[in-house]
Amino acid sequence: MTTLQINFIEPKAAKLLEDLAAMNLISIQSSNQDRLKNLLNKLRVHSDNISMEEITKEVEIVRAERYANKKK
Q1: H or E element that contains 8
Q2: What torsion, rounded to 10 degrees, do the Cα atoms 34, 37, 42, 47 define?
Q3: What is the domain count for the chain?
Q4: Is 2 within the bounds of a domain?
Q5: 23 is in which domain, residue-wise?
Q6: What pTM value is reported for the model?
């Protein structure tokens, strides 16, 4: 199997690749960056206005948990 990174110049090209994927000739996977963007967009749509302090607090909690798990 060969993996390629493709940048679309013409939007119609994406449709062609989607058609190939529908015929099970290729598989399409989003990059980690695209998945992160999609996740952030979903979270933004479903969230209330959240302050920077609340974000920072949540990040610190997650980091503390990860650090504690690494020590074990």
Answers
A1: none
A2: 170
A3: 1
A4: no
A5: 11-71
A6: 0.42
